[in-house]
Amino acid sequence: MNRNELFICLIFNLLLASLFIGAFIKTARADTPYLTFVIEYWYCPLLDSNPHGRLNLIVDISKLMYDGSSTYDWYFYSNIPAGNEGIRIQTVPGCVAYGSNWETAHTYANHTVWDPGEHRWLVDYDPTTTDGFTSSTATATVSISPEGSGISFSLSYTYNIPYVKVIDKSDFSVHRAFWEHDFNEQNDPGGSPSDSTYLARPAFVVKTTQNSWTYIDGQYKVDWGHPVWFWWEYESFKSDILYLDAKMGGDTPITQNDAGTGGDAGNSFADATSINEGSYEGTLYECVDEEDWYKFYVQSGQNIYVRVTPPSGVDFDLQLYDPGGNLKAGSYKGSGYSDSVSYTADSTGYWRARIYIFSGEGQYSFYVNIYWPGGGGGCPILYVYNGTDYICEGLLNIHNSEGVDVTYEHTLISMPHRVINTYLFKLIEHPQTHSYIDQVKLYAILNDKTVIQLPLIQAWHSEYGNVLPQLLFSDEWKTNTIGANLNNGTSQSITLKFLASFPVTKVIGFIFQIEGNNPYLKK
Length: 523
Hints:
The chain is mainly beta.
């Protein structure tokens, strides 16, 4: 055999070897056990008592795949490598939640397999008892060895327990996984779990006959305490029975398709989901997914308009950030209201919109519009008196080519200055257009998210004088404002005066609303 024949033979053998190894690796991977997500339950808050504190709960359940058994299934109520975090029992004591002096003393987590012994069994759990209050972490290791296959699976993770004693009250004979977390509330230093938000993460595994249901009854209890003179007073709270079933019952699993991505939008400035201008939908869930971030490219000088509409009875808020991460505008209306922001970009790059929960959860819709000033629909321009001068807030787009009235809301960027218990505004018509204004309103947003309307007490047209009667009601009696190009070089304007709220009332924002139409397009 010459050198060339030897080389060809060697290559051929290497190819055969690689095919064999590849087939072996493929088979080995197919037989490797792994966990797949089944369902998530979230209860936020599970228990809530002002001034004592809150107890929140999230439970992730996963199923073991490729377990090598045609008889049994295994369900893990525990940490999942893909990022879900099993059982999360979060304590928020009153000193954190409500500014009181109540601290966490004990929490109890009781999970019992319902109707065990015929179709389902408790087969493993962790952690076991931890003595004393000085251990730094508790380890949760849950393992199984499926019958008849020789395949085993083990999962381990830790959670911090400084100044907390874990007391294992579990009992295999009755298929119960039960833990008490005993907090050292009277002797631990400040900032310890008793007076801070604390997360306990126990774990357990249930075996079932194949394709059988898994029924788990969960019940949770918390003791909060506070010092009273020379003794401590305690209050106990217990939840109802929860049904944590892997294949049926309980809450609906989380499914998300934010902005058509098939999943969750980014949850921070850095990982914001990229979108273009247009209309979208998204979903927020309390405790699980409390904010969504979106980014879009804007050139300096362009106008940005973002609006978000929450479900009925739900309060979501909206913020706008520039490319450097600086908050530029925000809208914080109350429950059931749409929030919107308008801003003229002062830098080029990816701007971000943050949509987040104030209260409630569910599906929202949002709209992003980016446009150059001076183009598009007809608009009067809003100005706000800040104590020194009238500051431009931007265009109010009430364009409708058919002459049908449009209602437009604008969340103020500038805070108006109180002048003799009034707020002053001015509407100046864009030079190229002609508006027909029917009604204007001003709303104040109070620090408790209440929205109140401030009375319009004066409206003075630059050419027609008093137009207050025309602007008080939504009817067919409108006020014209004509732009400079259509009015001998001078744009008409209306000066508005609204009665301010009481001085003691804390106002955190304003919404200006205009109703009318403008059939003209700016060139």
